[in-house]
Design brief:
Layout lengths: L1 E5 L13 H15 L3 E6 L8 E4 L11 H14 L5 E4 L4 H8 L6 E4 L6 H10 L4 E4 L2 H5 L8 E2 L19 E6 L6 H11 L3 E6 L3 H11 L15 H10 L2 E4 L9 H8 L4 E3 L5 H4 L6 E3 L3 H8 L7 H11 L2 H16 L16
Parallel strand pairs: 1-2, 1-4, 2-3, 4-5, 5-6, 6-7, 8-9, 8-10, 10-11, 11-12
Helix pairs in contact: 1-13, 6-11, 9-12
Length: 353
């Protein structure tokens, strides 16, 4: 099958640091290639994903979310991938523009990586006329209301990269964006109440993130504590492998939460608030704890030694591998292509057959 993947134009694939969507696209591209498909990725020129790549922008487009840049990027992508058997678009504007412009194209699948909001409702209802929509958790899909969802497919990660660790570093870990909905300040308070040090690896680039840190997080830290850094992948992996547990006190309906699956792959239990997809990722009492508030999370920290780290790893292998994710998408692609009037491609990566 000839599969065209379209990434957003803001971050290389794979991402050098923070970039959940781009990490998923990289895993999917490699997983589909391993299944024997011919995968092409439309991205930015600095990407290193090991499949055939095309781009309009050699460097990531700035500023992020600029509508003109995204429009140019996706129109070029649909033109470049017009001979694919199916296009899988991970951008926001791409499926809508392609449908509205009446571009000659193969069937389109689009994965919605962000939350479903009232502002997005009309756009996604229109997108559903032209593309098959994928949600990334059942909680995510339920939020779509009457907008049709073709499939629910959990993200998958490279289990050869995320290797299990001993968890003997003597610290708890937070990984994510420096933002109120991610609950960094709550993680700091829960860890302090439990008497544990907390290592924070957080993206903090824009003004809102800087302001949140200064106003709500810094006052909770020890005097002279260094500003939390956005760690590259290798350093983040080591932090996860040696952490006693990952704290994820999210206060919003996060569509998936890739960091939780990554922690489980490292053998690290996850303590999270039960919002969004967290109950679909964490098995309460087996791979972590779903906590009803900061006090509950503090109490759960004392119970972390009861969690078998190998059970966490096994859960990741069973449910969150890139192989499973690629197979789920392959199944969806084939179901779409087998609809009446569609040409059914061969399984191999040599084309349509």
């Amino acid at each position: 099958m000839r599969i065209g993947l379209i990434a957003p134009p803001w971050i290389p694939v794979p991402p050098p640091a923070y970039g959940g969507t781009e990490a998923v696209i990289d895993n999917l591209a490699r997983g589909l290639t391993a299944l024997g498909h011919d995968v092409r990725l439309f991205t930015v020129g600095t990407s290193t994903c090991p499949v055939r790549r095309q781009w309009l922008f050699r460097s990531p487009a700035e500023p992020m979310s600029d509508a003109a840049a995204e429009t140019a990027h996706v129109l070029a992508a649909y033109e470049a991938l017009g001979d694919a058997d199916i296009i899988h678009d991970h951008t926001e504007l791409g499926p809508l523009l392609a449908g509205r412009c009446g571009l000659a194209r193969p069937p389109v699948v689009t994965t919605v990586h962000g939350p479903f909001t009232p502002l997005a409702r009309d756009r996604l209802a229109e997108v559903a006329r032209y593309a098959s929509i994928v949600a990334i958790s059942h909680a995510h899909a339920r939020s779509f209301g009457r907008v049709p969802v073709a499939a629910v497919i959990h993200h998958g990660i490279d289990l050869d990269v995320y290797r299990p660790g001993p968890g003997t570093g003597g610290y708890l870990l937070f990984v994510g964006r420096m933002s109120p909905e991610k609950g960094v300040h709550r993680a700091v308070r829960a860890a302090r109440a439990a008497g544990w040090p907390l290592v924070i690896a957080a993206k903090s680039r824009n003004d809102a993130e800087h302001a949140y840190f200064e106003e709500q997080v810094r006052p909770l830290l020890e005097p002279g504590a260094r500003r939390p850094a956005e760690e590259p992948l290798a350093a983040r992996l080591e932090l996860m492998r040696h952490a006693a547990a990952l704290l994820n006190p999210i206060t919003w309906p996060e569509p998936f939460g890739l960091v939780m699956a990554e922690a489980l792959a490292a053998g690290t239990p996850v303590l999270a608030f039960p919002n969004g997809a967290a109950p679909e990722i964490i098995d309460h009492g087996r791979t972590g704890y779903l906590c009803r508030g900061e006090a509950d999370m503090t109490a759960a920290i004392a119970r972390v030694p009861e969690i078998d780290r190998w059970r966490c790893r096994t859960a990741a292998e069973r449910r969150f591998s890139l192989t499973r994710m690629a197979a789920d998408y392959e199944r969806l692609y084939r179901a779409i292509l087998e609809r009446p009037g569609q040409r059914v491609p061969s399984r191999t990566g040599t084309g349509s057959g």
